[in-house]
Each structure stands twice: as structure tokens, then as C-alpha cells.
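Batch job 17 of 40 flagged for manual review because the log was empty.
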Amino acid sequence: MKQLILSIGACMVMASTAASASGINSELHKLDNTVQDREGNVYLTVSIGDQVWLAENLRSTQFQDGSAVRSGAVLNNDAANLLTYGRLYNWHDVSDERNLALRAGELPPMKIGKS
């Protein structure tokens, strides 16, 4: 758990000092508890019981089939908010059958207690 908190803290520091999302993605990709979406965005994951969850908000601009989402706004239209808050999607995109979120099969296998 201490390692997970340290990892999240380190990522927050990296987020505040990195110039671009791609720089953050390359740093996050070095961690064990991450998953990558079809666009190359890398997300931290956390195990809760026997389930694996994303530890941060989505930044995707595409559905799982590659088509563009209709919403996906960045808070205050400020690119600096993308890494902190992710994108804000409307209900039409969230509930779309093309699936905005990562599929369960794309999450890495993780053992309970691994951080």
C-alpha cells in the first residue's frame, strides 16, 4: 500500500512538472500497475478485493472501435487540466454501445495485494 501511495504521489509530481501528456504516459508506462488504451494513454490501476479498477479518469477521444467521441471536453478548455481531471463526457458517449471505457480484458492480470 505504501508503494501504491508513493507511486500515485510520484505521478502527481510528474504531472505537475511534465510538459505534455506523452511525457507522463512514458513515465507511467514504466510502472507495473498500469494499462494502456488504444490511443496510447497510460492509466494507473488499483486492486480492490479481486477486482482491478482504473485509479484515474479517462483521457480517451475515441470509442473502442476507433470512432471519435462527441464530447470529451477538458475542464476550462485548459490542456493542463487533462492529466488532473481527464476528459468530461456526456451521457450519450458514456452509454454508447461502442464502449468508451477500456474493456475488462484489457486490464492487466494482477494478484490481490500487489501494488
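Reviewer: the log was empty due to a logging misconfiguration, but the result itself is present. Residues 34 and 44 are 4 Å apart (CA to CA). Unflagging and moving on to job 18.
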